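As the next step, I selected for study a record pairing a protein sequence with its backbone structure tokens, which the following lines show:
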Amino acid sequence: MLRAFAHPRPPMTDTLAAVLLGVIEGITEFLPISSTGHLLIAERWLGARSELFNVAIQAGAILAVVLIYRERLLQLARSVLTRDGGSVHGQPARDYAWKLAVAFLVTAVLGLVVKKLGFQLPETVTPVAWALVIGGVWMVLAEWGAARRAQALGERATITWTVALLVGIAQVVAGVFPGTSRSAATIFVALLAGTTARVAATEFAFLVGIPTMFAATAYELLSLYKDGKLGGEDWSALAIAFVVAAVTAFVAVKWLLRYIQTHRFTAFALYRIALGGALLLLVPAGS
């Protein structure tokens, strides 16, 4: 997936490169700044990694979020099995669980359609840089729109069926355009669609990302197995990167959940615009 973006690997040990890529994945997977975009950029200098390596570090990041939300996940599972799971942000846990399921199913169905159609942008610097810039500008505008929406509706933590459907669609859009950021797309869609409570919108976006990313990881592993690409891997480097991604993602998500309680997402938007602009200026088009 990332081979076309890579330059010859500079002199750097595989272990150090694995650690750096694990850190990048862990920090960027759930922050609204695009993990795919950052990994594509990083692999330009650190050297391209195998498909299996990229799947492994993503799995590490998912594991971190599962650990953070383990109590909520147990509550939702209990609500489905026993119909007695209490409430989540003021709505029955069972309803919340079904809305998560619907968002995931929308993503799964549309994602398979996109796969069948073979629609995919080239993973080179220019489209990623533009996605970072456009996504950053959109975040600034969406932040303003979300604030206006919150003033009109008040603090609303409820996840509606409309929010669930739109979050499912947003995940597909983010998957098609490298550099968009799945977390940014889903969080802001939820905020604009009526879940004006920032923490509640972020939690739903992260929770629906768990089955989505697990399914994507399983799909990639199955594809690699069928293509015979699971052999010849540097398993020690892969294991190190997995652990580093998990630990880093755990810290990053914990920090973000505290940060958004008192701050907006504007700093992330400005970072995206600055990074994308620098790439457009400094890196040759088509690289």
